[in-house]
Amino acid sequence: MTARDPIADLRRIAFLLERANEATYRVRAFRSTAAALTALPEGELTDRAAAGTLTELPGVGEVTARCVVESLAGEEPVYLRRLVATEGVDLDAAATALRAALRGDCHTHSDWSDGGSPIEEMALAAVELGHEYVVLTDHSPRLKVARGLTADRLRRQLDHVARVNAELPDGFRILTGIEVDILADGALDQDEDLLARLDVVVGSVHSGLNDEPAKMTRRMITAVTNPHLDILGHCTGRMVSSRPAGVTGPGDRGHRARTRPESRFDAAEVFAACAAHGKAVEINSRPERQDPPKRLIRQALETGCDFAINTDAHAPGQLDWQCFGCVRAALCGVPAERVVNTWPAERLLRWTAGHAAP
Ligand SMILES: [Zn+2]
Ligand SMILES: [Zn+2]
After folding, report:
1. Cα(179) to centroid of ligand 1, in Å?
2. Is-contact 333 301, C-beta < 8 A?
Protein backbone atom coordinates (compact mmCIF):
# COMPACT_ATOMS: atom_id res chain seq x y z
CA MET A 1 0.00 0.00 0.00
CA THR A 2 1.22 3.50 -0.72
CA ALA A 3 1.78 5.76 2.24
CA ARG A 4 -0.81 8.40 3.07
CA ASP A 5 0.16 11.90 4.17
CA PRO A 6 0.36 11.55 7.98
CA ILE A 7 0.40 15.30 8.56
CA ALA A 8 -2.76 15.76 6.51
CA ASP A 9 -4.39 12.91 8.46
CA LEU A 10 -3.44 14.49 11.81
CA ARG A 11 -4.80 17.87 10.76
CA ARG A 12 -8.00 16.24 9.51
CA ILE A 13 -8.45 14.50 12.86
CA ALA A 14 -7.90 17.78 14.72
CA PHE A 15 -10.45 19.52 12.52
CA LEU A 16 -13.07 16.80 13.06
CA LEU A 17 -12.44 16.78 16.82
CA GLU A 18 -12.97 20.54 16.95
CA ARG A 19 -16.12 20.17 14.91
CA ALA A 20 -17.36 17.57 17.38
CA ASN A 21 -16.63 20.01 20.21
CA GLU A 22 -14.12 17.67 21.86
CA ALA A 23 -11.84 18.74 24.71
CA THR A 24 -9.16 21.22 23.66
CA TYR A 25 -6.28 19.13 25.02
CA ARG A 26 -7.27 16.29 22.71
CA VAL A 27 -7.32 18.55 19.66
CA ARG A 28 -3.99 20.10 20.66
CA ALA A 29 -2.34 16.67 20.79
CA PHE A 30 -2.99 16.18 17.06
CA ARG A 31 -2.12 19.73 16.05
CA SER A 32 1.15 19.72 18.00
CA THR A 33 2.15 16.38 16.50
CA ALA A 34 1.43 17.74 13.01
CA ALA A 35 3.60 20.78 13.80
CA ALA A 36 6.43 18.63 15.18
CA LEU A 37 6.45 16.43 12.06
CA THR A 38 6.35 19.39 9.70
CA ALA A 39 9.58 20.65 11.27
CA LEU A 40 11.48 17.38 10.72
CA PRO A 41 14.30 17.11 8.16
CA GLU A 42 13.69 14.96 5.07
CA GLY A 43 13.62 11.25 5.84
CA GLU A 44 13.54 11.49 9.64
CA LEU A 45 9.80 10.86 9.88
CA THR A 46 9.94 7.48 8.15
CA ASP A 47 13.12 6.54 10.02
CA ARG A 48 11.55 7.33 13.38
CA ALA A 49 8.29 5.58 12.49
CA ALA A 50 10.27 2.46 11.56
CA ALA A 51 12.39 2.65 14.72
CA GLY A 52 9.41 3.38 16.98
CA THR A 53 10.95 6.61 18.27
CA LEU A 54 8.28 9.10 17.21
CA THR A 55 7.20 9.62 20.82
CA GLU A 56 10.66 10.97 21.65
CA LEU A 57 9.71 14.09 19.70
CA PRO A 58 8.25 16.88 21.80
CA GLY A 59 4.47 17.04 21.47
CA VAL A 60 4.10 13.50 20.09
CA GLY A 61 2.19 11.00 22.24
CA GLU A 62 1.31 7.32 21.88
CA VAL A 63 -2.05 7.91 20.25
CA THR A 64 -0.86 10.40 17.66
CA ALA A 65 2.27 8.33 16.93
CA ARG A 66 0.03 5.32 16.19
CA CYS A 67 -1.93 7.41 13.69
CA VAL A 68 1.30 8.39 11.94
CA VAL A 69 2.46 4.79 11.69
CA GLU A 70 -0.92 3.74 10.26
CA SER A 71 -0.82 6.60 7.70
CA LEU A 72 2.69 5.71 6.59
CA ALA A 73 1.57 2.10 6.18
CA GLY A 74 -1.10 3.36 3.79
CA GLU A 75 -4.02 2.71 6.16
CA GLU A 76 -6.60 5.23 7.20
CA PRO A 77 -5.81 5.77 10.90
CA VAL A 78 -8.38 4.05 13.10
CA TYR A 79 -8.84 7.29 15.03
CA LEU A 80 -9.68 9.12 11.81
CA ARG A 81 -11.98 6.37 10.61
CA ARG A 82 -14.03 6.72 13.80
CA LEU A 83 -14.45 10.44 13.15
CA VAL A 84 -15.25 10.57 9.44
CA ALA A 85 -18.73 9.10 9.88
CA THR A 86 -20.00 12.62 10.55
CA GLU A 87 -18.04 14.38 7.82
CA GLY A 88 -20.27 16.50 5.60
CA VAL A 89 -23.29 15.96 7.85
CA ASP A 90 -25.31 18.93 9.07
CA LEU A 91 -25.07 18.04 12.74
CA ASP A 92 -27.95 20.23 13.90
CA ALA A 93 -30.21 18.68 11.29
CA ALA A 94 -28.98 15.18 12.15
CA ALA A 95 -29.62 15.68 15.89
CA THR A 96 -33.07 17.14 15.22
CA ALA A 97 -33.96 14.24 12.92
CA LEU A 98 -32.79 11.74 15.51
CA ARG A 99 -34.87 13.40 18.23
CA ALA A 100 -37.89 13.41 15.92
CA ALA A 101 -37.40 9.71 15.28
CA LEU A 102 -37.54 8.78 18.98
CA ARG A 103 -40.83 7.22 20.03
CA GLY A 104 -40.08 6.73 23.69
CA ASP A 105 -37.65 6.73 26.56
CA CYS A 106 -36.24 3.56 28.14
CA HIS A 107 -34.83 4.91 31.42
CA THR A 108 -36.94 7.00 33.80
CA HIS A 109 -37.53 7.17 37.56
CA SER A 110 -40.57 7.96 39.70
CA ASP A 111 -41.03 8.80 43.37
CA TRP A 112 -41.25 5.07 44.06
CA SER A 113 -37.42 5.22 44.11
CA ASP A 114 -35.36 8.44 43.91
CA GLY A 115 -37.40 10.38 41.37
CA GLY A 116 -39.33 13.48 42.40
CA SER A 117 -42.74 12.78 40.86
CA PRO A 118 -45.50 10.18 40.75
CA ILE A 119 -45.67 7.74 37.85
CA GLU A 120 -48.83 9.44 36.55
CA GLU A 121 -47.07 12.81 36.19
CA MET A 122 -44.07 11.30 34.44
CA ALA A 123 -46.43 9.55 32.03
CA LEU A 124 -48.47 12.68 31.27
CA ALA A 125 -45.28 14.67 30.57
CA ALA A 126 -44.16 11.91 28.21
CA VAL A 127 -47.53 12.06 26.42
CA GLU A 128 -47.14 15.83 26.01
CA LEU A 129 -43.67 15.34 24.53
CA GLY A 130 -45.24 13.15 21.87
CA HIS A 131 -43.83 9.87 23.13
CA GLU A 132 -45.66 6.63 22.39
CA TYR A 133 -44.20 4.92 25.43
CA VAL A 134 -42.03 5.46 28.43
CA VAL A 135 -40.27 2.71 30.33
CA LEU A 136 -40.45 3.08 34.11
CA THR A 137 -37.10 1.94 35.48
CA ASP A 138 -36.93 2.55 39.21
CA HIS A 139 -33.93 1.29 41.16
CA SER A 140 -33.33 -2.20 42.57
CA PRO A 141 -33.15 -3.17 46.31
CA ARG A 142 -29.40 -2.86 46.97
CA LEU A 143 -29.43 0.82 46.03
CA LYS A 144 -30.81 1.80 49.41
CA VAL A 145 -29.84 5.49 49.10
CA ALA A 146 -32.18 5.63 46.10
CA ARG A 147 -34.99 3.72 47.88
CA GLY A 148 -34.53 0.81 45.51
CA LEU A 149 -37.65 -1.36 45.20
CA THR A 150 -37.79 -4.72 46.95
CA ALA A 151 -39.39 -7.56 45.02
CA ASP A 152 -42.64 -6.93 46.89
CA ARG A 153 -42.70 -3.22 46.14
CA LEU A 154 -41.88 -3.88 42.49
CA ARG A 155 -44.79 -6.35 42.30
CA ARG A 156 -47.04 -3.66 43.73
CA GLN A 157 -45.65 -1.15 41.26
CA LEU A 158 -46.53 -3.47 38.37
CA ASP A 159 -50.14 -3.61 39.55
CA HIS A 160 -50.16 0.15 39.91
CA VAL A 161 -48.75 0.68 36.40
CA ALA A 162 -51.48 -1.54 34.98
CA ARG A 163 -54.11 0.69 36.64
CA VAL A 164 -52.41 3.90 35.43
CA ASN A 165 -52.14 2.54 31.89
CA ALA A 166 -55.87 1.95 31.80
CA GLU A 167 -56.44 5.68 32.40
CA LEU A 168 -53.88 7.01 29.90
CA PRO A 169 -54.77 8.17 26.37
CA ASP A 170 -54.91 5.59 23.59
CA GLY A 171 -51.68 5.25 21.69
CA PHE A 172 -49.52 5.73 24.77
CA ARG A 173 -48.44 3.32 27.45
CA ILE A 174 -46.04 2.92 30.29
CA LEU A 175 -43.82 -0.09 29.76
CA THR A 176 -42.63 -1.87 32.88
CA GLY A 177 -38.96 -2.00 33.69
CA ILE A 178 -36.16 -1.58 36.16
CA GLU A 179 -32.74 -0.03 36.43
CA VAL A 180 -31.21 -3.04 38.07
CA ASP A 181 -27.87 -2.84 39.84
CA ILE A 182 -25.07 -4.88 38.34
CA LEU A 183 -23.64 -6.47 41.49
CA ALA A 184 -19.96 -7.07 42.22
CA ASP A 185 -20.01 -10.47 40.50
CA GLY A 186 -22.07 -9.27 37.53
CA ALA A 187 -25.34 -10.73 38.81
CA LEU A 188 -28.50 -8.62 38.59
CA ASP A 189 -30.06 -7.30 41.79
CA GLN A 190 -33.64 -8.57 41.48
CA ASP A 191 -35.57 -11.86 41.48
CA GLU A 192 -35.38 -13.84 38.25
CA ASP A 193 -39.14 -14.21 37.89
CA LEU A 194 -39.63 -10.47 38.19
CA LEU A 195 -36.87 -9.63 35.72
CA ALA A 196 -38.52 -12.08 33.32
CA ARG A 197 -41.88 -10.33 33.76
CA LEU A 198 -40.61 -6.82 33.02
CA ASP A 199 -40.82 -5.32 29.53
CA VAL A 200 -37.37 -3.70 29.58
CA VAL A 201 -34.38 -4.23 31.86
CA VAL A 202 -31.67 -1.57 32.08
CA GLY A 203 -28.62 -2.77 34.00
CA SER A 204 -26.18 -0.28 35.53
CA VAL A 205 -23.12 -0.30 37.74
CA HIS A 206 -23.65 1.94 40.78
CA SER A 207 -21.12 0.50 43.23
CA GLY A 208 -17.47 -0.52 43.07
CA LEU A 209 -16.94 1.95 40.27
CA ASN A 210 -13.20 1.82 40.94
CA ASP A 211 -12.95 -1.94 40.37
CA GLU A 212 -9.72 -2.82 38.63
CA PRO A 213 -10.25 -3.06 34.86
CA ALA A 214 -10.15 -6.85 34.46
CA LYS A 215 -12.73 -7.30 37.23
CA MET A 216 -14.99 -4.54 35.87
CA THR A 217 -14.81 -6.06 32.37
CA ARG A 218 -15.83 -9.50 33.67
CA ARG A 219 -18.55 -7.97 35.78
CA MET A 220 -20.05 -6.05 32.85
CA ILE A 221 -19.81 -8.97 30.43
CA THR A 222 -21.53 -11.28 32.93
CA ALA A 223 -24.37 -8.75 33.15
CA VAL A 224 -24.58 -8.17 29.39
CA THR A 225 -24.77 -11.90 28.69
CA ASN A 226 -27.56 -12.33 31.27
CA PRO A 227 -30.69 -12.97 29.16
CA HIS A 228 -32.72 -10.56 31.31
CA LEU A 229 -30.58 -7.51 30.60
CA ASP A 230 -31.62 -5.50 27.55
CA ILE A 231 -29.77 -2.20 27.87
CA LEU A 232 -26.40 -1.43 29.47
CA GLY A 233 -26.95 1.83 31.39
CA HIS A 234 -24.41 4.72 31.67
CA CYS A 235 -21.50 2.33 31.14
CA THR A 236 -18.55 4.38 32.43
CA GLY A 237 -20.33 5.84 35.47
CA ARG A 238 -18.55 9.14 34.93
CA MET A 239 -19.83 12.47 36.22
CA VAL A 240 -18.57 15.34 34.11
CA SER A 241 -20.13 18.26 35.89
CA SER A 242 -21.90 19.18 39.06
CA ARG A 243 -25.62 19.68 39.51
CA PRO A 244 -27.23 20.92 36.27
CA ALA A 245 -28.47 24.51 36.42
CA GLY A 246 -31.88 24.94 38.00
CA VAL A 247 -32.21 21.35 39.15
CA THR A 248 -33.10 20.71 42.75
CA GLY A 249 -34.81 17.98 44.65
CA PRO A 250 -34.18 16.15 47.89
CA GLY A 251 -33.19 12.54 47.65
CA ASP A 252 -32.33 12.84 43.99
CA ARG A 253 -28.95 11.23 44.01
CA GLY A 254 -28.43 11.82 40.29
CA HIS A 255 -27.80 15.46 41.06
CA ARG A 256 -25.15 15.45 43.74
CA ALA A 257 -22.57 18.10 42.99
CA ARG A 258 -19.38 16.19 42.14
CA THR A 259 -17.40 14.84 39.27
CA ARG A 260 -16.20 11.25 38.88
CA PRO A 261 -13.77 9.67 36.43
CA GLU A 262 -14.79 6.89 34.05
CA SER A 263 -14.69 3.35 35.38
CA ARG A 264 -11.95 1.41 33.64
CA PHE A 265 -12.85 -1.67 31.59
CA ASP A 266 -12.03 -3.24 28.25
CA ALA A 267 -14.55 -1.40 26.08
CA ALA A 268 -13.75 -3.53 23.01
CA GLU A 269 -14.72 -6.70 24.90
CA VAL A 270 -17.80 -5.25 26.57
CA PHE A 271 -19.15 -3.76 23.34
CA ALA A 272 -18.38 -6.97 21.46
CA ALA A 273 -20.50 -8.82 24.04
CA CYS A 274 -23.31 -6.28 23.60
CA ALA A 275 -23.19 -6.68 19.82
CA ALA A 276 -23.02 -10.48 19.98
CA HIS A 277 -25.98 -10.73 22.36
CA GLY A 278 -28.04 -7.99 20.72
CA LYS A 279 -27.97 -5.73 23.79
CA ALA A 280 -28.15 -1.95 23.47
CA VAL A 281 -25.61 0.50 24.83
CA GLU A 282 -27.32 3.42 26.53
CA ILE A 283 -26.49 6.97 25.51
CA ASN A 284 -27.38 8.65 28.79
CA SER A 285 -28.58 12.21 28.14
CA ARG A 286 -28.14 13.64 31.64
CA PRO A 287 -25.94 16.75 31.36
CA GLU A 288 -23.79 15.72 34.32
CA ARG A 289 -23.28 12.19 32.96
CA GLN A 290 -22.93 12.44 29.15
CA ASP A 291 -22.15 8.76 29.28
CA PRO A 292 -20.58 7.08 27.37
CA PRO A 293 -18.10 9.67 26.12
CA LYS A 294 -18.11 10.20 22.36
CA ARG A 295 -15.01 8.13 21.66
CA LEU A 296 -16.77 5.13 23.21
CA ILE A 297 -20.03 5.81 21.34
CA ARG A 298 -18.01 5.71 18.13
CA GLN A 299 -16.30 2.52 19.19
CA ALA A 300 -19.62 0.87 20.08
CA LEU A 301 -21.05 1.98 16.73
CA GLU A 302 -18.11 0.44 14.87
CA THR A 303 -18.46 -2.74 16.93
CA GLY A 304 -22.03 -3.10 15.68
CA CYS A 305 -23.93 -2.24 18.87
CA ASP A 306 -27.43 -0.83 18.98
CA PHE A 307 -28.14 2.12 21.27
CA ALA A 308 -30.89 3.53 23.47
CA ILE A 309 -30.95 7.33 23.82
CA ASN A 310 -32.37 7.72 27.33
CA THR A 311 -32.93 10.62 29.69
CA ASP A 312 -32.61 8.85 33.06
CA ALA A 313 -35.20 11.47 34.04
CA HIS A 314 -35.90 11.89 37.76
CA ALA A 315 -38.56 14.57 37.13
CA PRO A 316 -41.05 15.27 34.31
CA GLY A 317 -39.15 18.24 32.81
CA GLN A 318 -36.04 16.11 32.51
CA LEU A 319 -37.83 13.90 29.98
CA ASP A 320 -36.99 16.65 27.49
CA TRP A 321 -33.26 16.12 27.98
CA GLN A 322 -33.25 13.55 25.20
CA CYS A 323 -32.11 16.28 22.81
CA PHE A 324 -28.72 16.32 24.62
CA GLY A 325 -28.24 12.63 23.93
CA CYS A 326 -29.34 13.10 20.32
CA VAL A 327 -26.71 15.79 19.75
CA ARG A 328 -24.01 13.48 21.07
CA ALA A 329 -25.30 10.54 19.03
CA ALA A 330 -25.44 12.69 15.88
CA LEU A 331 -21.88 13.88 16.47
CA CYS A 332 -20.86 10.23 16.44
CA GLY A 333 -22.86 9.37 13.31
CA VAL A 334 -25.34 7.04 15.06
CA PRO A 335 -28.16 6.27 12.58
CA ALA A 336 -31.78 6.27 13.83
CA GLU A 337 -32.26 2.63 12.82
CA ARG A 338 -29.61 1.60 15.36
CA VAL A 339 -31.47 3.32 18.22
CA VAL A 340 -33.95 0.93 19.82
CA ASN A 341 -36.26 3.66 21.11
CA THR A 342 -36.93 4.87 17.58
CA TRP A 343 -38.72 1.54 17.15
CA PRO A 344 -42.48 1.16 17.78
CA ALA A 345 -43.31 -0.39 21.16
CA GLU A 346 -44.23 -3.74 19.58
CA ARG A 347 -40.84 -4.04 17.92
CA LEU A 348 -39.05 -2.95 21.09
CA LEU A 349 -40.94 -5.61 23.06
CA ARG A 350 -40.17 -8.31 20.50
CA TRP A 351 -36.51 -7.32 20.80
CA THR A 352 -36.44 -7.52 24.61
CA ALA A 353 -38.48 -10.76 24.63
CA GLY A 354 -35.98 -12.22 22.17
CA HIS A 355 -33.19 -11.91 24.74
CA ALA A 356 -35.00 -14.17 27.16
CA ALA A 357 -35.84 -16.82 24.56
CA PRO A 358 -33.93 -20.09 24.97
ZN1 LIG B 1 -28.11 4.79 37.20
ZN1 LIG C 1 -31.30 5.94 36.43
Report:
1. 7
2. yes
